[in-house]
Automatic annotation (TrEMBL), chain A:
<feature type="transmembrane region" description="Helical">
    <location>
        <begin position="79"/>
        <end position="99"/>
    </location>
</feature>
<feature type="transmembrane region" description="Helical">
    <location>
        <begin position="167"/>
        <end position="185"/>
    </location>
</feature>
<dbReference type="Pfam" id="PF04976">
    <property type="entry name" value="DmsC"/>
</dbReference>
<dbReference type="GO" id="GO:0005886">
    <property type="term" value="C:plasma membrane"/>
</dbReference>
<feature type="transmembrane region" description="Helical">
    <location>
        <begin position="34"/>
        <end position="58"/>
    </location>
</feature>
<dbReference type="InterPro" id="IPR007059">
    <property type="entry name" value="DmsC"/>
</dbReference>
<feature type="transmembrane region" description="Helical">
    <location>
        <begin position="241"/>
        <end position="260"/>
    </location>
</feature>
<dbReference type="GO" id="GO:0009390">
    <property type="term" value="C:dimethyl sulfoxide reductase complex"/>
</dbReference>
<dbReference type="GO" id="GO:0009389">
    <property type="term" value="F:dimethyl sulfoxide reductase activity"/>
</dbReference>
Automatic annotation (TrEMBL), chain B:
<dbReference type="GO" id="GO:0051539">
    <property type="term" value="F:4 iron, 4 sulfur cluster binding"/>
</dbReference>
<keyword id="KW-0408">Iron</keyword>
<keyword id="KW-0004">4Fe-4S</keyword>
<dbReference type="InterPro" id="IPR050954">
    <property type="entry name" value="ET_IronSulfur_Cluster-Binding"/>
</dbReference>
<dbReference type="InterPro" id="IPR017900">
    <property type="entry name" value="4Fe4S_Fe_S_CS"/>
</dbReference>
<dbReference type="InterPro" id="IPR017896">
    <property type="entry name" value="4Fe4S_Fe-S-bd"/>
</dbReference>
<feature type="domain" description="4Fe-4S ferredoxin-type">
    <location>
        <begin position="12"/>
        <end position="42"/>
    </location>
</feature>
<dbReference type="Pfam" id="PF13247">
    <property type="entry name" value="Fer4_11"/>
</dbReference>
<keyword id="KW-0479">Metal-binding</keyword>
Length: 300, 249
């Protein structure tokens, strides 16, 4: 699949933003008004940035409001509805916190649940597609949720500057979980194949099918969008960058932070490194995904 | 509404005979011609006369070379021409993924259509389709797909013989057929039963309405050798010519 920058930014930034909202809603972070401001601005910027990036993917963004209508059947519509609901509920939570200085636990818990549901809906947009065998697994939403939880907690640690050893260790445990889920996802993905040309043409009973002549001499939308061909010889290198920056380096920084609490700069460095790793991970998520339609063009 | 309707009794669709199709692309051209001026936005082309032309088509004709597993050495492969367009699936994933309600399946006859005024051009329906039946129009920014020529088949301004999809009407080899696949006694259903018509990728769970009739099996004989007497010296008049030419050889 074509790794559109808009979709990479959308899934990474909104995942981080909803992760931050979820942990804040659960009561993490200091109670002070300044922190309420910081966390509201940060989560608002991340969520708005992510959703704004996703709007760039639309050819007719003026009609995006219609995406709120089909939540009964469409995961993309559910994602839009849940993202708006999460933003509204967390907005109310943040506003009462800023104005009155109290954090309403019920409102916080609700925004945390909605934030988790939004991340799940984002992942299901891809998971639901049988046409892309790599994505069609429960490991996809599990890894999206684990990345959002990890990134959100790293953001809490970075913004609050809290010297909390339990939270640092929790972040480390979440990071390890996310890395393990992604490793399992990659292990499975390596074994998946798009349907063969014999299967897509139903000509398998006659023999081996090879493309003799393509249907058109120029490019078309299907090829640009769904038959993106990654330079496979560099995939391993990108995967190493994703694992190194996304998991190994932040784990090392978190271990240091747990050993020497309140060392300035460690938590933000871990967050930035994790984010950079996620951008590589998400690029591979799209670029390596093989769509069934490629088989009609002779790809195996 | 992008929830799917109850399966309709009438299931309009195409039957494509891969044994007959000669790969002339006339159906694709007729489709482009009709649909660029009919339902919805035109089927645009980008850089059509330039170095890198591309454009929107609702019907694409592939050609494949099929080699039997147990084919003798140097046996010629079989060429199969393969028109690919929307199969108007009963369980159409392109409809249920649509976030805006633009993509829908008609309850009365099962035709899958896009309400282009409601399409925001996200492209998810094209991702959900295993058959590559949907193409985003680069000029209009909305999703285009086969309409089964909904503006022909019910069009009483057209002579009755023209009230079928443009691809079917134009096919010079009669490889394409249009009808009600929900009616077991229709011509198309009988054809499917007689020829063992198949679904494409049934494992995707889409329940396509369109059927493909597989090519009939070819005889496996290697081509007959050249005439055995071709190397022998001919007699009679040809023999005289041969001897005369030999003097000049």
């Amino acid at each position: 699949m074509h790794p559109a920058p808009s979709l990479i930014l959308f899934t990474v930034l909104s995942g981080l933003g909803f992760g931050l909202i979820a942990w804040t809603g659960l009561g993490l972070g200091p109670a002070g008004i300044w922190y309420a401001w910081t966390v509201s601005v940060a989560s608002g910027a991340l969520v708005a940035g992510g959703l704004g990036a996703s709007a760039l993917h639309l050819r007719r963004p003026d009609r995006a409001w219609r995406a709120f209508s089909q939540w009964r059947s469409s995961w993309l519509s559910r994602e839009a509805v849940l993202a708006a609901a999460t933003s509204a509920v967390f907005g109310a939570y943040a506003l009462t916190w800023i104005v009155t200085g109290t954090r309403l636990a019920a409102l916080g818990l609700l925004s945390a649940l909605l934030a988790a549901a939004t991340v799940l809906a984002t992942a299901m947009i891809y998971t639901q597609l049988r046409t892309v065998p790599r994505w069609h697994t429960p490991l996809t939403p599990l890894s999206f949720l684990a990345f959002a939880a990890t990134g959100g907690l790293l953001a809490v640690l970075s913004l609050s500057g809290a010297a909390s050893r339990p939270l640092t260790l929790l972040a480390l445990a979440l990071l390890a979980t996310a890395a393990a889920l992604k490793a399992a996802w990659w292990h499975r993905a390596n074994a998946t194949r798009r349907p063969s040309p014999e299967a897509t043409t139903a000509l398998g009973a006659l023999g081996t099918v090879r493309q003799f002549e393509p249907p058109h001499t120029g490019r078309n939308y299907l090829q640009d969008e769904m038959i993106f061909r990654l330079a496979r010889r560099r995939a391993t290198a990108v995967r190493r960058l994703a694992a190194g920056l996304g998991a190994a380096l932040p784990a090392l920084l978190l271990a240091l932070l747990a050993a020497v609490p309140a060392t300035p700069g460690l938590a933000p460095a871990a967050l930035l490194s994790h984010l950079a790793g996620l951008l590589f991970e998400r690029w591979l998520f799209f670029a390596e995904a093989e769509h069934a339609v490629g088989a009609y063009y002779g790809h195996r | 509404m992008t929830t799917l309707p109850e399966p309709s009794g009438v299931k309009l669709g195409l039957v494509i005979d891969l044994d007959i199709c000669v790969g002339c692309h006339a159906c694709a051209v007729a489709c482009k011609e009709w649909n660029t001026a009919a339902y919805g936005a035109p089927l645009s082309d980008q850089d059509p006369y330039g170095a890198d032309p591309s454009g929107t088509w609702l019907n694409r004709i592939h050609s494949y070379e099929v080699t039997p597993e147990d084919a003798p050495q140097n046996a010629p492969p079989q060429i199969v021409h393969f028109p690919r367009s929307c199969l108007h699936c009963e369980d159409a994933p392109c409809v249920t993924v649509c976030p805006t309600g633009a993509s829908y399946k008609r309850a009365a006859d099962g035709i899958v259509l896009v309400n282009e005024d409601a399409c925001m051009g996200c492209g998810l329906c094209a991702w959900a389709c295993p058959y590559g039946a949907r193409e985003m129009d680069a000029a209009e920014g909305v999703m285009k797909k086969c309409t089964l020529c909904v503006d022909r088949i019910y069009n009483e301004n057209l002579p009755e013989e023209d009230r079928e999809p443009a691809c079917v009407r134009t096919c010079p080899a009669n490889a394409r057929h249009f009808g009600d696949l929900g009616d077991p006694d229709s011509d198309v259903s009988r054809m499917v039963a007689a020829r063992g018509g198949v679904d494409l990728m049934p494992e995707q769970g889409t329940k396509p309405v369109n059927k493909y009739l597989p090519p009939r099996p070819k005889t496996r004989e290697t081509p007959p050798p050249a005439r055995p007497d071709a190397e022998e010296a001919p007699g009679g008049f040809l023999g005289w010519v041969d001897r005369a030419l030999a003097l000049l050889d």
